[in-house]
Amino acid sequence: MAAQSAPKVVLKSTTKMSLNERFTNMLKNKQPMPVTIRASMQQQQQLASARNRRLAQQMESRPSVQAALKLKQVGV
């Protein structure tokens, strides 16, 4: 039984720059995040925090959660 190997495929390079060089250049040319985007992100985080606080308040008022908290206080 002679094992036949598949012919080797050789691809010609389509670029003169290595992958490492590409990523190095990308990191060098990376611009800092503008202040407006930072402010927008902070505003979104504050909005999310407010929503989470409201959700926590809603959860506290649910009867099932109140019962669970009472059980926890009793030490069960």
TrEMBL record:
Record PANTHER family: CHROMATIN TARGET OF PRMT1 PROTEIN (PTHR48426:SF1)
Organism the protein comes from: Trichechus manatus latirostris (Florida manatee)
Source taxon at top rank: Eukaryota
Name of the gene this protein is made from: CHTOP
InterPro entries named among the record's database cross-references: CTOP_PRMT1
Name of the protein described by the UniProt record: Chromatin target of PRMT1 protein isoform X9
